[in-house]
Write a structure and sequence with these properties.
By secondary structure, the protein is of the alpha+beta class. It is 18% helix and 39% strand. A hairpin with a 2-residue loop joins β11 (244-252) and β12 (255-258).
Length: 466
């Protein structure tokens, strides 16, 4: 079977993978078109490199299937797939010169010497390394080594080139130059690129399609314009560019309340009085005289960014970020203005505003959840009884590991104008929890969690929902 009518070259269907009982990929489905530049984008630990390795055949999924040109290739080894990979560290052979590095795969495949020479010379010219054939790769700059790695991968005429953060070792100026070169090479050759990065600017500038990932799941797939202008949730909005993200209440169709005021918007289809996340991009906000807007605040900082000023304004208890070509002074009182179509309404990533966790009564007045135990006098429930616990985000705190009730994995942080909304993952119970904090931690690391047990609400067994 060849490429389908919709031009699909590669397809992942319901891919799931666990490492040491931790879920790395959770039901990931994706299709890639022929000649498409697709970028897998997300923070460290989100599963993007694992997805790339499954496509390349270096890792087998626990569940799901990989299709190439309509054929299932789960059991096909890497060297038999029409796929080549460029790794971040390039993996060049230091004892070989540039020509022999690029020619290595062709020699293994026993391609005739004349054809090897022609293909290598053509590829070196394409990556602007003509004349470097006899140079030792150890004498090349980082950018030149990266070009050799790309030439070595492309000279074998793969249908798909996988690139795992190939620009990560380069300085900023060279990264930007290579972004342009990579896109140009992809367009010249007309082959499919699948590119892994955590750099949002890189993804926006190079891709036809961006796949945003978090916690082993795909959050959104779309063009760079769609991803930036119409993010599906607060994580995508926060990860792609700068955003003002606030808690809001969708009062009715086209009407939302946030930042202490009601606003007209262009969104509909939400329930009445539904809690939502509200996103307003900094470049969509205008600074006006205070009397021209009901939303007013005080400028707390101003930084010149070259093409605009980045200002922070405190209004109704929330921090607003504003990008403007007009400079204001710190302590100035200003009005904040934006149009209805600059307001983006989205469902909250975390269902509800409270954590709901299943627990069990393990002894007299003792309850256990997520391998954490606490006592509640007068509980009055026999051991073995299943209960549901409701825990407010404010009843969970970040502490040092020696003070913690549990160690959990920090999946995401989103600044909500007055606090950080964090989502942590429990290794013990395969569950996510939301907490609100002023602290800031590194995403994709383990953190210490402490509960205010007095604030935990225990619901009787008959109220436990499925």
């Amino acid at each position: 079977m060849s490429i389908g009518e919709n031009n699909t070259l590669l397809e992942l269907k319901n891919i799931t993978l666990d490492y040491d009982q931790d879920r790395v990929l959770d039901n990931v489905s994706l299709y890639v078109k022929d000649k498409e530049f697709v970028t897998l984008l997300g923070p460290s630990g989100c599963g993007k490199t694992t997805t790339l390795r499954i496509i390349g055949g270096f890792v087998n999924p626990d569940q799901g299937d990989v299709y190439f040109e309509g054929k299932r290739i789960n059991d096909l080894p890497p060297h038999k797939r029409k796929v080549n990979t460029v790794f971040q560290r390039y993996a060049l052979f230091p004892h070989l010169n540039v020509f022999d590095n690029v020619a290595f795969g062709l020699k293994i495949a026993k391609v005739p010497e004349k054809e090897i020479k022609e293909r290598v010379q053509k590829m070196l010219a394409m990556v602007d390394l003509k004349g470097f054939e006899r140079r030792r790769v150890t004498k090349l700059s980082g950018g030149q080594q990266q070009r050799v790695a790309i030439a070595r991968a492309l000279v074998n005429h793969p249908k798909v080139l996988l690139l795992d953060e190939p620009l990560g070792a380069l300085d900023l100026k060279l990264r930007k130059e290579m972004q342009v070169e990579l896109k140009s090479i992809q367009q010249q050759l007309g082959i499919t690129f699948i590119y892994v990065t955590h750099d949002q600017e890189e993804a926006l500038s190079m891709s036809d399609t961006i796949v945003v990932m978090k916690g082993g799941e795909i959050q959104q797939i779309g063009s760079p314009e769609d991803i930036y202008n119409e993010p599906k949730n607060a994580f995508v909005a926060d990860f792609i560019g700068e955003s003002n993200i606030f808690d809001g209440l969708m009062l009715e169709d086209y009407r939302v309340r946030f930042s202490g005021l009601e606003f007209t918007c262009v969104d509909k289809g939400f329930a009445s009085n539904q809690p939502v996340d509200v996103v307003v991009r900094p470049e969509d906000v205008d600074v006006v005289p205070p009397e021209q807007s009901p939303l007013q605040g005080v400028v707390t900082s101003v930084v010149f960014k070259g093409v605009h000023y980045e200002m922070n304004v405190k209004a109704n208890g929330l921090d607003w970020m504003i990008h403007s070509t007009k400079c204001q002074n710190v302590s100035d009182r200003v009005g904040i203005s934006f149009d209805p179509d600059d307001i983006h309404i989205m469902n909250k990533m975390f269902k509800g505003d409270v954590n709901r966790i299943t627990g069990q009564v393990t002894g007299e007045d003792t309850v256990e959840f997520l391998d954490v135990s606490f006592t509640r006098e007068g509980l009055g429930l026999p051991p073995g009884t299943q209960v549901r616990l409701e825990i407010q985000p404010e009843a969970i705190a970040l502490v040092s590991e020696d003070q913690a009730d549990a160690k959990m994995y920090l999946e995401s942080i989103i600044w909500k104008g007055a606090y950080n909304e964090m989502i942590v993952y429990s290794y013990a119970g395969n569950a996510e929890l939301m907490l609100h904090t002023q602290s800031d931690e590194q995403v994709a690391t383990d953190v210490g969690i402490k509960f205010d047990f007095d604030q935990i609400r225990i619901l009787p067994a008959e109220e436990v929902a499925g």
